[in-house]
Structure formats: C-alpha cells, structure tokens
Amino acid sequence: MQNVDYIIRADYLLTMEGDLSVIKDGAVAVTGSDIIDAGIFADISKKYTSQKLLSGKNKVVFPGLINTHTHAAMVYFRGLADDLPLMEWLQNHIWPAEGKWMNEDFVNDAVELACLEMLKAGVTTYTDMYFFQDTAGKKLEKLGMRGVLGAGVIDFAFTGYAKSVDDYFINAENLITAWKASEFVFPCIAPHATYTCGTDNYKRANALSEKYKVPIHTHLAETQFEVAECQRRYGKTPVEYLENIGLLSERLSAAHCVWLTDKEIELLAMKKVGVAHCIESNLKLASGFAPVAKMLKEGVKVAFGTDGAASNNDLSILGEMSTAAKVHKAVSGDPTVLDSKTALLMATRNGAEILGLGDKIGSIKPGKKADLIIANLEQPHLMPLYDIYSHITYCLRPSDIETVMVNGKIVVENGKPSTMDEAEIMDKARIWQEKIKSS
Ligand SMILES: [Zn+2]
After folding, report:
1. What is the mean pLDDT of the chain?
2. How close is the Cα of 399 to the center of ligand 1, in Å?
3. What's the CA-to-centroid distance between 1 and ligand 1, angstroms?
4. Residue 158: per-residue pLDDT
5. Domain range for residue 53?
6. pLDDT exceeds cutoff 90 at 246
7. CA atoms within a 13 Å half-sphere pointing along the CA-CB vector of 210
C-alpha cells in the first residue's frame, strides 16, 4: 500500500481522458502537486492509503475549468457601462476609465477579486491580456492559482506603464524572464488587436514569443468593424493579414474569431491556432456568432473565454458552456451541435492544449498536476440525474462547487477560499467602486 496525500472519492469521476466515459464511484490519488492515479474507488483503495479522504455522497469530480481569455483586472469596471456597441463602449467608457484608474494598485486589488470569483466558480487557470502582469503574477503565486499572463501591447504609450512603445516589449521580456520557472505563472505576450497594433508591433511580439517559446495571444476577427478596418488598412481580412505577417502558429491563441470565411477556418486548423470562444461577450456587444460548429468540425481547437467582466458581466466558465451549448444549436438549426460532453471537453482539455499546457493540466491523468473540482449534486436544480455531463453543462452553478484543488493544494473548501480573505477583498472592491463612481 502506498501512502498518498489525498484520496478524493466521488459518485461520479470525469477524467476527460480516453472515450470520456463516466467512472461511477471513482477516486483520485494525489501526492504533492501530482495526480498519482485515478479509477474506480474499489481499485484505488486497494493500492493507496491516505490520512486525508475527501468524499461524500452525491458529488462529482472533474478537472479545473480553464478560462482562455479575460482581462482579470477589469472586474472593477463590471457594470460600469452596458448596452453599447464595442467601439463606443471602448472609446467613450472603458479606455477613459482605464486611463484614469488603471495602475499597479488597481491591478493588485482587482486581480484578487477576479481570482476569488474564478476559483469559487471552479476556474483554476486563466489567460489574461492586460498590463502590470508582474503584479498579477505575485498575486497568483500567493493565492495558488494558475495564469497565462499576457503582457499587453498597443501602438500608443500608456501613462504609468509604458512611456513609449518600446516599454511594452521591455515589460514583456522582463515578465518572461522573471516567471519562466513558475508553477503558477506562465508568461505570454499579447498584442491587443489589428486595429490597435501595427505590423511592426505584431512582428516584434511574435519574435519575442518565438525567442522564448512562450504563447502569444490576441483579439481576432471580433467585429465587422475590425474586418472593415483591416481591409481598409491592409487590403486583407484580420486572419489573412496575420497569416501574411507570419503570426499564425501553434503558439497563437486568438480570442473571438467571430467573422471567419470557410477558407480562414481551414487556415486556423492547418496552422493549429487555438481559439478562445467568448460567447457571452459576443452576445452582449452584439459582435455576432462565431462559427464554432464549423470550427470544431474542421479540427480547430476551440475553448471558452469569458472576456473581461465589463463585457460579460461575470467570469464563469460554467455560464459560457451553458450559453454556448444552447446558442449554437439555435444559430445552426441543429440541436446536436455542441453537446454537453464537447462543452466540458472545450472547458478543460481543449483549454489546456491551446495554452500549451496540455501535458500539465486539463484532465485527470496520472502524471498531470492535481487541478480539480468537487461539486455537490444534492441540489433541487440537479435532481433527478440521468446524465452527469448534461447536468454540468446545462444546470451546474458556481455555487454548487464545494472544493477546488490547484497543484495538489486545496484553495476552496466548502465554498470558502482558503488562501484569500474574502471580506477584505469585498471591502477593497467597495472602496474602488466609490472612487470610480465619483469620477
Ligand atoms: Zn478581450
């Protein structure tokens, strides 16, 4: 018998490996940061003992959810300006608010609120595009949550962060060299979009990504405005333009990808570009419907992102799964599209793979890191239960998530964070709310 740190037992275990079959009365053995074994409890209990047995009736265990596109610090702009088109929302509300408030202190406090919201909702890893990512990185190490932190790049200076465009690259390179050995922080470079970043900056960002073998993340083909603007500037669509300047590769994950031709979908599949599908943000900003069913059919790796809380307005991947699974059925006129198994696969293994972390996280498999969730199924909205995948995609709520483990450590226990002071985070948010409101 081998002694392990934890044995986690549940009525239903979804490893998201192999044929995705459900393991009834399953268990996971965890030691240190690693998953040692997973299978039926009868087998696990013959091989391992542990002082810490996490178990209970009517529970489900599945891998931590992955949010492949957000701007975490924007939680402080949640609900600040709603019901507007993207460019008006950005130019008249979000960019002025960021210009006034966004600094290191803001990011430090706001990221903590975003992490609290995400961890309690079962999100164990997120991809970010923002500024002051070194500050966010220190927060993640302290909280024990994973982030692919994209150092933002735009064509104009940003007071307090980048006095000139060169500073974006200096900040990005410093981030990469500071965090390349971290278990929690995965540095990334994030040119904003084709309408805010010129060719030189895209090429410089790509060269840095290539030099250090780190991911590159951008917004792509989000709106019709973006496509028209790209056509006007370069005579090409955003996807054609990025292909032309050598950006499309396995290292690239692109948020949105709403306005794509069939040829562009084939190109994204061929170049192994990952897509972060942000359905709720696309719906709220009336950006359009990404051709997710076609992308999946053509072999494009698609995962879920929430985008920032100012355009969603929450950071729940369970919400994205449920919305996407329904909307794409209606849009395609085909109720078999984006079934519940596919939705959970996109939220876990696909997410890990498009971030280049597929060998570490995204499924419950011996040798991978122990990032997992225990949810309580003893809820009226989860009764009766015929298909666990269906319940996770269509019915499970963030409040049903009881325990969250990241890297073998429990970060949420009985719905309460164990590495954060929730009351203090809420108080700080109220202080910022009063400041931002009075401006
Ligand atoms: Zn975004």
Report:
1. 96
2. 25
3. 49
4. 86
5. 2-63+366-417
6. yes
7. 10
- 25 lies in some domain: yes
Q: How far is the CA of 271 from the centre of ligand 1 (A)?
A: 22
Identify whether residues 79 and 59 lie together within a single domain. Answer: no
Q: What is the pLDDT of residue 86?
A: 82
Element (H, E) at 219: strand 216-220
CA of 310 relative to ligand 1 center, distance in Å = 10
Structural domain count, the chain: 2
58 shares a domain with 69: no
Q: Ligand 1 centroid to 68 CA: how many Å?
A: 10
Residue 225 lies in a domain: yes
- The CATH number of residue 188's host domain is 3.20.20.140
Residue 143 has pLDDT above 80, yes or no: yes
Query: Ligand 1: distance of its center to the CA of 84 in Å?
Result: 16
Query: How far apart are the CA of 235 and the centre of ligand 1, in A?
Result: 24
- Is 426 within the bounds of a domain? no
CB distance 120 to 415 below 8 Å: yes
Q: Please state, in angstroms and as integers, the Cα–Cα distance from residue 120 to each residue in 253, 278, 317, 398, following that order.
A: 25, 20, 11, 7
| CA of residue 388 to ligand 1 center, whole Å | 31
**Residue 236 and residue 363: Cα distance in Å, rounded?**
38
Structure tokens belonging to residue 432: 């910022």
Protein residues near ligand 1, an ion, with CB under 5 A: 307
The pLDDT of residue 242 is 98
**How many angstroms is it from 277 CA to the middle of ligand 1?**
10
Domain boundary among 354, 374, 398: 354
